[in-house]
Amino acid sequence: MFKLTHTIACAAALALSSPVLADQGVEQTSVRFAQVAALDGPAAALGTGMRQGLLAAFNEANLAGGVHGRKVELTSMDDGYEPSRSIEAVTKVIKSDDYLALIGTVGTPTTKATQPLTTAAKLPLIGPFTGAGFLRDPALSNVINMRATYDAETQAWVDYLVDDLGLKNIAILYQDDGFGRVGLSGVNKALEARGMTLSAEGTYTRNTLAVKSALLEIRKAEPEAVVMVGAYKPLAEFIKLSKKMKMDPVFVTISFVGSKALAAELGAAGDGVIVSQVVPQPWDASLPVVAAYQAALKSFDANEEPGFVSLEGYITGRLAIQALENAGADVTRAGYLAALSGLGTIDLGGMTLSYGAGDNQGSDSVFLTRIRADGSFEAMAPGS
Q1: What digits encode the pLDDT tens for the residues 105-159?
Q2: Which of 68, 246, 303, 367 is 20 to 30 A distant from 311 in Cα terms?
Q3: Burial class (CB in 10 A: 0-12, 13-18, 19+), 318
Q4: Domain extent for 111
Q5: Same-domain pairing of 144 and 15
């Protein structure tokens, strides 16, 4: 069974809604979104990070009077990063008819399992935390992506490792499911374009830390670099075990990993690990979108530290709010879908999202970062 966590942005007593206005999450004084994501287990930091960012954005809007006078609310449900639990939770969301949209889902295998349900129900699916290519299909009229694809991230890895560092012996560790195989495919395509192949492959099972067999296989190739497609706990285990076994190549991993959580898990062993990102540095307040995010996060939860995942959640929340404003006071689910489809270009100040005919992905940006010895992150200039 899934665990339900009900969070109301900017807590306020709900007034009784007019029967005429109550429709698929829209009431006289409120509008409700649902999130189904990992809130517990080895990938919990991803779901909770997205939730914190979404709630910061919703709270920011609510403190300014809401959207067309309505408070924006979020109900978060835990799927443990397991497709079967995600199907159960999303089915509940659809059958309840109590939500305007599904937002901030986490993971390729879970979203792949539930996307057909949302599309059949014409339930908007906004800002899934995955770069899987299947969600970029323009035929999926209910899906609005915020982030760049995993193919774009893996291309950036290979560009750096091969073109900048001149490395030729590259191995991969990946989660043995749809998410991991998407990353594997992207790396293979980028290498094949250069007439290269991977020197070794290793896999592990989702929601486990069973990476030792993969490490032993990869170590045989004596790789100069290991690229990794997975979540923070198993990848941290892999890196720490590698270093204990005197294998210390260049480690590179993907935005989905949960950067802040990875750095915390690794401690001093994280020094030099490279992570690709799809949002700007969450500490760079020179960018208006980051400054707004920092202020919104502090206002919502003064104890929450900025991070890449919650920044992505915040930007996704801003995207949802913009469409809600565009949909007008008499918003319906159908009208909201139309507003999402017609978003066009959104300038957030330091990050621009652009949508158009046949293009349901707002950003193509990928940034490389490196973990420092103290667990902080530095932006990497080309060739660094």
Answers
A1: 999 999 999 999 999 999 999 999 999 999 999 999 999 999 999 999 999 999 9
A2: 68
A3: buried
A4: 3-148+283-354
A5: yes
pLDDT digits (tens, 9 = 90+) for 275-290: 999 999 999 999 999 9
- Please tell me the pTM assigned to this model: 0.91
- The reply to whether 161 falls in a domain is yes
- Residue that finishes a domain, picked among 242, 277, 312: 277
**Which domain CATH number covers 254?**
3.40.50.2300
